[in-house]
Specification:
Helices cover 38% and strands 16% of the residues. It is of the alpha/beta class. The longest helix has 15 residues, at 110-124.
């Protein structure tokens, strides 16, 4: 509503938000949306939020869609921040929470990014959208494209969880399975998009999925009465949610809603695919591709992320870090969370709980810390990981 322009996250080159954009035309890095926050703050206030709809579009002044009639929604966002007292008590934590993104449409956090991306595609008059996906993003794009009457062209690794593939097919998407990783799927989209007339909505290769994901940060602040948690554990593949939240915290501070204190942000990855963990540990600005990537947590099987430098910057500025978890640990922890708190997490959510255990053992999380674990999808989409 108050979108002013797009700017490169690396070289700061400005781009016109009135026309569709992918990455920076100068350096090829991700673009971020910028707003007139002074104007936005006139109507977007803590008081006004009390009577608004329980969806992420409650923050519409700091979301990019100009005309409300272009919003393509399935009721996404405003997911519960569930207290986890029994799980916390095991570790002496009195303020442990699970942000349960499985309660979104299409049962994952990807709904947040796709509602924004597809709404902007509708505003621009686009008709054909394409993306590579490890599973959940494809399901979300299929749903929102169907809702908007657009074509969705999806490229997924052949070993993507079956539930995701069926989900996409049943929503009328064009599904292509690739022998390879999500990077191979992305290369296929890049090779064909011009000839096919597709607009690429890959992770951080268009500016608006991050805008939908940033509402995670707004919701956390609002649900915790405008005090951010001390620690956030976030499962990181492409990392849009992590960088989106970091962006949201900056916007909220500029509007006077929060102070300069930030949560310690932790990227949680799989041992078999840990480019961000390696780069963080080595002090690198960019993350080298993780060759031979493998993990049963399909959402974490992203060997190279275009937003690597943004993630690494957020982790370092926040005083957080990056942790790699084995598949065995994340599957075991999924059952522990489920049997203790009644939340059937995706393996990625189990990985975050396993990472919390690692931080507690290293005395990097204190008993009086407010800790938020992200569960990004339902375990029902990953049945192949359990019991067989």
């Amino acid at each position: 509503m108050h979108l002013t322009h797009l700017a490169c996250t690396a070289c700061n080159k400005e781009h016109d938000a009135a026309v569709p954009q992918n990455v920076c035309t100068a350096c090829g890095k991700p673009l971020f949306a910028h707003y007139d926050l002074v104007a936005a703050a006139k109507t977007l206030t803590k008081e006004s939020l009390r009577t608004r709809e329980k969806s992420l579009w409650r923050y519409r002044e700091v979301l990019p869609v100009k005309n409300p009639t272009d919003i393509v929604t399935l009721g996404e966002g405003w997911t519960p921040l569930l207290p986890a007292p029994r799980l916390g008590a095991k570790h002496g934590l009195s303020r442990l929470f699970i942000k349960d993104e499985a309660q979104n449409p299409t049962a994952s956090f990807k709904a947040r990014g796709m509602t924004a991306a597809v709404s902007m595609a509708k505003q621009y008059g686009l008709k054909k959208l394409a993306a590579p996906s490890a599973g959940n993003a494809a399901g979300a794009l299929a749903a929102y494209a169907a809702r908007a009457g657009m074509e969705a062209h999806l490229f997924m690794p052949r070993d993507t969880p079956k539930a995701n593939i069926i989900e996409c097919e049943q929503m009328g998407a064009h599904v292509t399975l690739i022998n390879g990783l999500i990077t191979d799927c992305g290369a296929e989209v890049a090779k064909r998009k011009v000839a096919e007339g597709w607009f690429d909505v890959s992770t951080l290769k268009e500016p608006y999925r991050a805008e939908g994901k940033k509402t995670l940060g707004y919701e956390l602040a609002e649900q915790l009465n405008w005090t951010l948690p001390d620690v956030i554990l976030y499962p990181t593949g492409g990392g849009t949610g992590l960088v989106g939240m970091w962006k949201a915290f900056d916007e909220m501070e500029r509007m006077g809603w929060i102070d300069a204190k930030r949560p310690r942000m932790y990227s949680v990855q799989a041992e078999g695919c840990q480019p961000i963990v390696r780069a963080f540990t080595q002090g690198d600005k960019f993350a080298a591709e993780h060759l031979g990537a493998h993990t049963r947590a399909s959402g974490l099987r992203v060997p190279k992320a275009i937003g690597d430098f943004i993630m690494l910057n957020a982790l370092r500025q926040s005083g957080g870090g990056a942790i790699a978890i084995s598949d065995e640990q994340m599957i075991t922890c999924t059952k522990e969370v489920g049997s203790t708190e009644g939340v059937f997490t995706a393996p990625e959510g189990g990985a975050c709980y396993a990472a919390l255990k690692t931080l507690l053992a290293a005395n990097q999380v204190k008993p009086d810390d407010t800790v938020v674990i992200f569960n990004t999808s339902t375990g029902l989409k990953y049945l192949e990981c359990y019991g067989g």
